[in-house]
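We emphasize that the prediction below concerns an isolated chain of 70 residues; any contacts that depend on oligomerization or on bound cofactors are therefore not represented. The input was used exactly as deposited, without trimming of termini.
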Amino acid sequence: MPKNSKVGKMYDAMTREGMDKGKAARVAQSKTGQALATGKPPMHKPVEHKKMMGCSSAAAREKRLAGRPI
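Result of the prediction step, given as a C-alpha cell string:
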C-alpha cells in the first residue's frame, strides 16, 4: 500500500481512530476512487461480454417478462 496516496492516508487515519481494517479499506477506496493496494484507480473490465452473447439488456428483460411475473 502506498503510504503517500490519498487512499493510504485516509485508511491510516480511520484505523487510527479505531475503525476495523476491512471497513476502513472499503470506505477509503469508495471515497477516493483509488485501490488501496496500488493507489491508482482500479481497472474495469470492458462491457463487451453482453454484446458477444448476442443479448442486450432490453432483450433480456423482454425474455424474462414474457411469461414470468417479477
